[in-house]
Design brief:
Elements lengths: L2 H16 L1 H16 L3 H6 L7 H15 L4 H5 L1 E4 L2 E4 L9 H17 L6 E6 L5 H9 L3 E7 L2 H13 L4 E5 L16 E6 L4 E2 L8 H4 L8 E2 L6 H13 E10 L5 H10 L3 E7 L5 E8 L2
Parallel strand pairs: 3-4, 3-6, 4-5, 6-9, 7-8
Antiparallel strand pairs: 1-2, 9-11, 10-11
Helix pairs in contact: 1-2, 1-4, 2-4, 6-7
């Protein structure tokens, strides 16, 4: 079958769901992933045909796309901070906004790392490991720890650490349960960073179906009546486990920037900075512990 004809079928079936431009991008991703054919080849060779065996994964992907499953889950991978990452239904798909959080941590850590050896970083709620692994790659002198409540997510993080040839320390624990906090690390951290669940139930109407139906709610949503519970618990943890002059970084709910900043202030953190993401939304928060 001609690859161009398969592309037309994709548009006929999916344009109403995703829009023509996104469907075109998705199709290009699929043919590159499964057939190692790039979009330029398709333009230059409009009569290019594929065998039944070669077209099978494309039609299987089409069936999953009709159910609005994210393309990243279908091909099992994505890119974050210029690095490859495995993803599956147990992990949140890394977002561009989180890349900005990583950049912020690196910006403040590169000068700080010179005066503190060993330099220690803790990523809370690591998921795919994208934050921890990117930081380990960019700050090779750092000793990086990463925790998650999901053992399945940590399996993916382990694969990603191996894929990107970095050494991180993975810990399976529930940060909400103080009794489960690691007691035997005997480590104070220079940096604690977290992208915890922060989308309130009332904001689900703003979430697209490909996220709502397929990405792990455990990593996304919090109850309306206690939207900052992760921030409060993690900040309490940071009070106990950050070094003096240690830094705390959060990705935050855009609608709760001032409330989250006030929470850190009440816990004694200062030099607070609320940062906008590329879309102009309050998305990152930095605090300094010097008490």
């Amino acid at each position: 079958m001609r690859l161009k004809d398969i592309q037309n079928i994709f548009h006929e079936e999916l344009d109403v769901i995703f829009g023509a431009n996104e469907v075109g991008s998705i199709f290009n991703i699929l043919i590159l992933h499964y057939l190692k054919i790039n979009r330029i080849a398709l333009v230059l060779e409009p009569e290019l045909s594929v065998s039944k065996e070669e077209e099978q994964p494309l039609f299987e992907a089409l069936s999953r796309l009709k159910l609005e499953e994210p393309i990243q889950y279908i091909i099992g991978e994505t890119e974050f901070f210029g690095l490859p990452f495995h993803v599956n239904k147990h992990t949140l798909i890394p977002r561009p906004e989180t890349e900005e959080l990583v950049s912020l941590v690196i910006q403040y850590s590169k000068h700080k790392i010179l005066s503190s050896q060993p330099f220690t970083i803790l990523d809370i709620g690591t998921g795919t490991g994208c934050i921890a692994i990117s930081l380990a790659k960019e700050l090779p002198n750092a000793q990086v720890f990463a925790v998650d409540v999901s053992a399945e997510a940590l399996k993916v993080a382990k694969q990603n650490a191996e894929l990107n040839k970095v050494d991180i320390n993975l810990i399976n624990t529930d940060i909400l349960d103080k009794n489960s906090w690691p007691q035997n690390l005997d480590i104070k951290f220079d940096v604690i960073v977290s992208n915890p669940p922060y989308v309130r139930d009332l904001e689900k109407l703003e979430i697209k179906n490909n996220v709502l139906k397929h990405e792990p709610h455990l990593a996304l949503f919090v109850e309306d009546n206690d939207p900052l519970k992760f921030y409060e618990i993690i900040t309490d943890f940071a009070v106990e486990n950050l070094k003096n002059n240690g830094l705390l970084f959060f990705e935050i709910n855009q609608y709760l920037g001032n409330e989250t900043k006030q929470l850190l202030q009440e816990k004694g953190f200062n030099d607070l900075e609320l940062k906008l993401d590329i879309f102009g939304n309050n998305r990152m928060l930095k605090g300094l512990k010097n008490f």
